[in-house]
Amino acid sequence: MTPDLFDHGDEAPTGREALAPGALVLRGFARNQAEGLVAEIDAICARAPFRHMLTPGGQRMSAAMTNCGPLGWVSDRRGYRYQAVDPDSGKPWPPMPGAFLRLAADAAAEAGFAGFVPDACLINRYEPGARMSLHQDRDERDLSAPIVSVSLGLPAIFLFGGPNRSDRAERVLLLHGDVVVWGGPSRLRFHGILPVKEGAHALLGRQRINLTFRKTA
Ligand code: SIN
Ligand code: FE2
């Protein structure tokens, strides 16, 4: 992939990289607001702490998760679903911060999906070694809206595959502040994250945090 804009000084590049029709990486799109996003994440996880959910098959996921917004994604022995209440506390998920809504809408618009209003934000925390195996985001009722995925902290390799699990997956290095958007013809593409390498990030230390914005209903 060749960026069509180049970097400024010694910073990581900005600009867009096409992945597939309806899918692209917006390099550095969230970088200058990262500190504010991290402060919001800290406030959210004070109310809804990160936890390692169980898959329906009974495996504990290596990425820790929490949510904000009207609906949160949860997984347990009964399956995957969205629900308004945090199963650990019995309380609603913390509200979606305005800065999150604006970032998600701006990134979606930049990718050609105007009017994106997410009702769910899944927050994934990867410590070194944590990963996310190839999957589709298909628990949402409205598949016309894109997925907007924000990377913060340690780098990771994002796998971006095709419509079938067996399709070859492209490997895309995602850095702090990068945003990936996929929708339209790419909405149901398989994707995942390879095990995060050991490291220390200036803002987030030994972790990678991913915000995944979705319109579920
Ligand atoms: C996800 O697909 O839920 C997470 C992707 C990521 O961590 O970048
Ligand atoms: Fe996903």
The gist of it:
This is DNA oxidative demethylase AlkB. With 217 residues, the chain is mainly beta.
What does this 3D model show about the protein?
With 217 residues, this protein is mostly beta strands. It has one domain: Jelly Rolls, CATH 2.60.120. It is built from two helices and 13 strands; from the N terminus they run ββαβββαββββββββ. The strands form three sheets. A seven-stranded antiparallel beta sheet has the order 1-2-11-8-13-6-3, covered by helices on one side. The protein has a four-stranded antiparallel beta sheet with strand order 7-12-9-10, with no helix packed on it. A two-stranded antiparallel ribbon has the order 4-5. A hairpin with a 2-residue loop joins β4 and β5. It is globular. The N terminus is likely disordered. Bound molecules: succinic acid and fe (ii) ion. This is DNA oxidative demethylase AlkB. Its EC number is 1.14.11.33. GO terms for molecular function: broad specificity oxidative DNA demethylase activity. Keywords: Dioxygenase, Iron, Metal-binding, Oxidoreductase. Its cofactor is Fe(2+).
